[in-house]
Known about the structure:
By secondary structure, the protein is α/β, with parallel strands linked by helices.
Amino acid sequence: MRVVVGSGSSRDFRQIELDRHLQMMSRYVERVQGEGPQSLSFTMILRSARSGPAQALIGMKDDLLRAGVIAKVILAKLEPEEDVRQLFASLSELGPREPAAELIRWARNPRLLDAHEQVTYGEAMCWSGDAMRRDADKRNALTLFDEAAPETVRLGRLAFEALWAASSLVPERRLLGPVTARPSGAYQPAQETQVAVSPLRPSLQGWPLVRH
Length: 212
């Protein structure tokens, strides 16, 4: 288990956290070469597209593309808009045959925001951060990285699937903007205004929203 404790200003902490996410993603890319299909994907539950893991994905998109990795992301906030569009463009390049509804979703229901930010990389690597509802400048500076935790990854994937099912499709205009060219994997015209929220069942209240 790797434990990172932030210190200094929030800006310093955000840069340190981004550097650590870049390092961890680089190690993941190195390890994933030659492994099975399950290892060639990762999931992210994030407060926004400005969160460290999302920025690391955008920055390392070409390396992930060469490795054949695909990713799925849940966001609690769709701002800043430019970051959301950059993130979606990167996801679309990694999964050009996937529709947007299978790449990114929006945890717009306030009841979902108690989930902690988390990333699962392949079958054994993961990260956990603070609750998505917490203001970015008032967050717990304790973040957890683990590079050998297959059981934690399994639980994290279950948490992601439950939250994914309870999240909404993202309107096309939030992903592409009014004049941006449509990337591969974008919504088809019939889906542009669709915002489908899966109803929350009582059983979902106990889903395994993992704090690694």
